Amino acid sequence: MNLFDVYPINDIIIDKAQGSLVWDEKGQEYLDMYGGHAVISIGHTHPHYVKRLTDQLNKVGFYSNSVRIPIQQELAAKLGKVSGKEDYQLFLCNSGAEANENALKLASFYNGKKKIIAFKKSFHGRTSLAVAATDNPKIVAPVNETDNVVFLPWEDQAALEEAFKQYEVSSVIIEGIQGVGGIQVASEAFLQKIRSLCDAHNAVFIADSVQCGYGRSGKFFSHDWAGVNADIYSMAKGIGNGFPMGAIIIAPHIAPHYGMLGTTFGGNHLACAAALAVLEVIEEENLINNALTLGDYIMTELRKLPNITEVRGRGLMIGIELPEAFAHVRKNLLAKHKIFTGEAKPNVIRLLPSLALTKADADKFLAALKSELEN
Ligand SMILES: Cc1ncc(COP(=O)(O)O)c(C=O)c1O
């Protein structure tokens, strides 16, 4: 049997990983400024994480949601504390798309309405509603097409107001910092506008925090920068440091009933142990603060380099837009300097490293990029 060939891959086999470093099977070391696509939040194979998962696996790895699973409640309490959303309710699932799918569905259950507002260049996942709310026709199959989603221009307050007049809006879904869309930071004013329009029209504000959340921006949720709360936050990626997991947290006014949402694997013992280990390390090592200060440092240094069109981002979610003539730089960073980075079209280098990145790692990256940009 062959693999279903949907990924354009680098011909590299990663055999070992630790902190912000990975090694291939020949022992070649790489610096990971990509974090396996924003997934590695606390660093690869962190000893506390490995121990907590191993201990849990030796006790019980899985039992279904038909029994009481105290480690879920333990996780809810910890997540409430670290995120500051202690009065929210936690629903656990398995991926970012599933988190958004549940969020959009829950919003519609809550207010009985159908229209979803999403934004140009958004990415919310590949399941049916999540992909319908994703602004990329190439990944939307005919069966996913729906009139229930309206795409508005990014940061256009007048268009948003108009849409609320025109439609019975169920929910507005927005990434606090667009990832796939090229690291576009939503302004505080725009997020505040969404909050006030949702309040006025009984619509649900969904903060897609799958990529920009979990401390990466220097606050737990990047939407927190606007000083307003969303009604539902979706998360995945960094939540389990590589253990497949997703979640939504739900404001207290949205009430659950039996059968409303459900999943076989979501919230299993092992996933919860992984998520608890992540939050414990984030707290213990002050990683949100590290993301903020190191991110500021990297962006300041980047702005001193030549041949960069624009530097965007917050914390350790950084986009470096390059002119067309420097389109080769990302490839060279990997081939010549052994540094993994992410990309966004047309020509943006995306940095999504572990929140435990060190200044020495950052300096190594900056020196490599400088040598490429000065050539
Ligand atoms: C903002 C955002 N939302 C949702 C998703 C989908 O997450 P997953 O791939 O875990 O389904 C992604 C994945 O890249 C994302 O960046």
UniProtKB/TrEMBL annotation:
InterPro entries for this protein: Aminotrans_3 (IPR005814), Class-III_PLP-dep_AT (IPR050103), PyrdxlP-dep_Trfase (IPR015424), PyrdxlP-dep_Trfase_major (IPR015421), PyrdxlP-dep_Trfase_small (IPR015422)
UniProt KW keywords: Aminotransferase, Pyridoxal phosphate, Transferase
GO molecular function, one term: transaminase activity
Signal peptide: none
Cofactor(s), names only, from the UniProt record: pyridoxal 5'-phosphate
Gene3D superfamilies: Aspartate Aminotransferase, domain 1, Type I PLP-dependent aspartate aminotransferase-like (Major domain)
Tree of life domain: Bacteria
Stored SUPFAM superfamilies: PLP-dependent transferases
Pfam assignment, any one: Aminotran_3
This protein's record includes keyword Oxidoreductase: no
Keyword Transferase (UniProt): yes
Entry's family note: Belongs to the class-III pyridoxal-phosphate-dependent aminotransferase family.
Protein name listed in UniProt: Acetylornithine aminotransferase
Organism: Chitinophaga skermanii
Origin organism lineage: Bacteria, Pseudomonadati, Bacteroidota, Chitinophagia, Chitinophagales
